[in-house]
TrEMBL record:
GO molecular function, one term: structural molecule activity
Protein name: Claudin
Topology of the protein relative to the lipid bilayer: Multi-pass membrane protein
Protein's job: Claudins function as major constituents of the tight junction complexes that regulate the permeability of epithelia.
Chief location: other
Subcellular location as annotated: Cell junction, Tight junction; Cell membrane
């Protein structure tokens, strides 16, 4: 009984963490706060940059953004990060669909335990891959930002980009997807699936009882 409770909790925790990670990874993809810097001459002005646009935030005017006009004109880390974030969002969505049909609480296909187990495992693998493809671009942009910040060839008067809020959201999203996938795979491989309920369980046990009755009758004769 406790094993079934742990299995249900692991499935619920895994799908919840994966859903949270997927939503945050989608948010990270479109947020313009991957990098930011403040001008020393005008502290009321803050510049931010994301994968799709650059923005300037002024106290009097508010936020004004401009989309990047050329994909090929972007730095390599931003170009590849766009692709990887799209892959992460797509894999996370597929993982939610696949693992959703593998949950024990869903009555569809409850007699096909092997199929539901494979769906959970496949969903966990998809979440792992989505987590990695979300962590790679975020970590790459962070690495380039650190390199440029400490680059001694750049004059000190030139403003330096620093970490934006989207990077931290992306890290949290990636680790949530990884942990959610781990929980789903543990629930599929480390615990035993519950018996089918209702008429399915009766239908499964009837042939077994019939076989026992026939065997008992044969022995009495």
């Amino acid at each position: 009984m406790m094993a079934l409770v742990f299995r249900a909790v692991a499935q619920l925790g895994g799908i919840s963490l994966s859903l949270l990670g997927w939503v945050l990874s989608c948010l990270t993809n479109y947020l313009p706060q991957w990098k930011n810097f403040n001008l020393d001459l005008n502290e009321m002005e803050n510049w931010t940059m994301g994968l799709w646009q650059a923005c300037v935030v002024q106290e009097e005017v508010g936020m004004q953004c401009k989309d990047f006009e050329s994909f090929l004109g972007l730095p390599a880390e931003l170009r590849i990060s766009r692709v990887l974030m799209f892959v992460s969002n797509g894999l996370g969505f597929l993982g939610l669909l696949v693992s959703g049909f593998g949950l024990d609480c869903l009555r569809i296909g409850e007699t096909q335990r092997d199929v539901k187990k494979r769906l959970l495992i496949l969903g966990g693998i998809l979440f792992w891959t989505a987590g990695v493809t979300a962590l790679v671009p975020v970590s790459w942009v962070a690495h380039v930002t650190v390199q440029e910040f400490w680059d001694e060839s750049i004059p000190e008067i030139v403003p330096r980009w620093e970490f934006g809020e989207a990077l931290f959201i992306g890290w949290f999203a990636g680790f949530s997807l990884l942990l959610g996938g781990c929980l789903l795979n543990w629930a599929a491989c480390g615990t035993q699936a519950p018996l089918a309920s209702g008429r399915y369980a009766v239908a499964e046990t009837q042939p077994h009882h019939l076989h026992l009755e026939m065997r008992t009758t044969h022995l009495k004769l």
